[in-house]
User: Which sequence fits this backbone?
């Protein structure tokens, strides 16, 4: 089963948490928590197992950013959610060299949250105009005139 | 371009869009050209960015429902369904069987209408004017049928948390049967008009090849994935709603070129017809709304990821709830966003005329990329 293969592949990386998810409730079969520095290795392990990057986004919690990667597979129903707690730092390592599809997702997160991705080949705004000076999905952003 | 004296390479920049008939909305592509060949293509998106994800954080769960019909206006009901299913999962609601059947029927009608519009508009891109007249004629019947039950013709907002608000009647079921019969009688026309057309075949075969490796690395889904030979359809691989009740197949291609994607979409319409027919036969009686739907939607703390198969691929919704009446964060994973990101790789070393053909074959809906 893909879930066991993934668990085996992720075991040597020394991750904080690799546990079964509650599929009926969250829609994910495997819940993983990784440190920012480990994410590149996690992505490589996912690609080697034949998974594709389904979705990537960030959540601005009051105390920390949480980056959420969802991986799934074309061959078998197994969705993995990888959470990367980022603290209030706005820096992360790109995985676009492993998944070229992550390029746009990371640009979107940079655009809407202001999180930088080191080693990203083309990190510029994606959805908002190039000269925008705000990041609208941060919780302290207020829409309307006069916002910096 | 080779100069007369000495060999000097010169490239120039060509701007395609954002207002261009073949970009289907406001998409801009910056092309770097070497003669008539493209050396680099960079899509510039975001012209239709309305901030749906930000809007979601500023209104309660029910208020966000009509927004979904505006994300992908061609297959709005699938987006409705995904959101309803995600919230139902958070609330622990069970949808009655009849409501699930109604959802499937209306959803598949919407899928056919989306594919029909693609069919017509795509051939218009390639220079064939007549097909769009035929398929808009057929599509009009779907819009009339859906108008009867949902009350709107395009940006539907029909499903509710826990079921559907209005029931369908015998006339709708009879209308569905008539429509399926009518559409089936048209396949022959479509084949004669387009599929067997040698001009179309020459433009579509072996152009815009997408490999299986690219599908995994870019997370491509939908007909363009199935055209490359991977039989992945969320209706089968992660069955939801009433889909396990029906007998249907996943059409796939072999080479992954434009022609395969075209054939997959055509075959999918037939499969949708099969689903609708079976749903008409098996439609159960009973309630259309779950019991005890809370008046105030206030899910407990938690998060959920829900995926559905739209006409363009996987639409996923990631909702983070903090136990409030408003969602804390909603991420819309739209199929065209991922499908479009592979475009700059496909465009290299092709001609501008082929570029337009490739772009159309991906079947992008720009508001869905920009959200």
Assistant:
């Amino acid at each position: 089963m893909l879930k066991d293969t993934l668990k085996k592949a992720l075991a040597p990386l020394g991750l904080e948490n690799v546990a079964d998810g509650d599929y009926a409730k969250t829609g994910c079969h495997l819940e993983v928590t990784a440190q920012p520095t480990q994410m590149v290795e996690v992505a490589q392990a996912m690609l080697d197992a034949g998974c594709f990057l389904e979705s990537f986004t960030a959540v601005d919690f009051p105390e920390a950013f949480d980056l959420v990667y969802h991986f799934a597979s074309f061959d078998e129903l197994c969705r993995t959610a990888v959470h990367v707690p980022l603290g209030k730092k706005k820096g992360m390592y790109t995985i676009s060299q492993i998944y070229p599809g992550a390029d746009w997702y990371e640009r979107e997160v940079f655009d809407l949250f202001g999180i930088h991705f080191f080693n990203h080949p083309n990190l510029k705004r994606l959805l908002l105009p190039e000269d925008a000076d705000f990041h609208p999905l941060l919780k302290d952003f207020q829409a309307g005139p006069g916002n910096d | 371009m080779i100069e007369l004296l000495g060999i000097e390479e010169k490239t120039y920049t060509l701007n395609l869009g954002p207002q261009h008939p073949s970009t289907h909305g406001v998409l801009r592509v910056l092309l770097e050209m070497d003669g008539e060949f493209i050396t680099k293509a960079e899509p510039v998106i975001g012209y239709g960015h309305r901030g749906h994800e930000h809007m979601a954080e500023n209104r309660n769960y029910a208020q966000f429902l009509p927004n979904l019909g505006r994300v992908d206006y061609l297959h709005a009901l699938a987006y409705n369904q995904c959101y309803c299913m995600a919230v139902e999962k958070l609330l622990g609601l069970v949808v009655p069987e009849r409501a699930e059947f109604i959802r499937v029927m209306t959803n598949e009608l919407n899928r056919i209408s989306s594919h029909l519009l693609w069919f017509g508009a795509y051939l218009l891109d390639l220079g064939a004017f007549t097909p769009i007249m035929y398929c808009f004629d057929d599509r009009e019947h779907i819009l009339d049928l859906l108008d009867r039950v949902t009350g709107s013709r395009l940006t539907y907002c029909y499903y509710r948390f826990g079921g559907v608000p209005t029931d369908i009647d015998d006339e709708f079921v009879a209308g569905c049967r008539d429509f399926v019969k009518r559409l089936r009688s048209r396949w022959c026309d479509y084949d004669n008009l387009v599929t067997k057309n040698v001009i179309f075949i020459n433009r579509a075969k072996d152009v815009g090849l997408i490999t299986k490796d690219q599908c995994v690395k870019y997370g491509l889904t939908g007909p363009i994935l199935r055209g490359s030979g991977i039989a992945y359809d969320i209706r089968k691989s992660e069955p939801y709603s009433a889909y396990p009740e029906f007998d249907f197949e996943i059409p796939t291609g072999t080479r992954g070129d434009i022609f395969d994607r075209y054939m997959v979409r055509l075959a999918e319409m037939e499969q949708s017809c099969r689903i609708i027919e079976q749903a008409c036969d098996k439609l159960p009686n009973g309630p259309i709304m779950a019991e005890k739907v809370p008046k105030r939607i206030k899910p407990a703390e938690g998060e959920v990821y829900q995926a559905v198969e739209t006409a363009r691929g996987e639409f996923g919704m990631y909702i983070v709830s903090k136990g409030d009446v408003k969602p804390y964060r909603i991420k819309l994973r739209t199929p065209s966003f991922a499908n479009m990101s592979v475009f700059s790789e496909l465009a290299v070393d092709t001609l501008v005329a082929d570029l337009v053909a490739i772009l159309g074959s991906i079947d992008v809906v720009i508001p869905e990329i920009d959200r």
